[in-house]
Amino acid sequence: MPISKGSPYGEPGTLPDDGVVVRSDAEARAVLERARAEGRPFPPLGLLGGDLCRTLGGPGDEARLRSPDAVRFPVDLGEVLVDGRLHLFVAHVVVRARGWGHVVAAMNAQFFGPWVLGPRAHPNDGLLDIYRADLSVADRLKVRARVRHGAHMPHPRINERRAAAMQIELDRPLPVYLDGERWGEARDLALRIEPDALTVFV
To answer: Vertex 155, ends 149 and 157: CA angle to 5°?
Structure first.
């Protein structure tokens, strides 16, 4: 069940023997997509890196995952239908023009690399934080100066919406990045979140 405001999140728990250790969001996505393709349940994931790991405060210590210091979290899983093909994501989907003038970002984690792109995003609230931006060069410079600290919102040229599902139609195909990994180009995306789909450990 998605977390409610003010509720504690995470509990002590060690990565089980059938858990899979991953070092990036893209690696986690690959493990989950392989499990789905083979009709297997999603395995528990031990996170050593990536933006979801950072959002959960993971130190990237593999020995900790099977120690009493490990923490277990229920996590939502993102799904995106990209021009008719279904993909999963654990942290984010970002669609952007070169230079970041036009951007669509669907965040299940707070971080996108060094940036706090989704300052209110929570990986277990049953919602995606979805941003659409059309920025001039001057706007981009101002946003980049603030986004490392999550202070870029509110902004008159950035639309923010929190939703469990959303359809995105772009004027033209743009590069799509799934959990930081370039997938290709697309102009139509259907986004949704699957609450409590995963168990992860940090």
So the answer is: 130
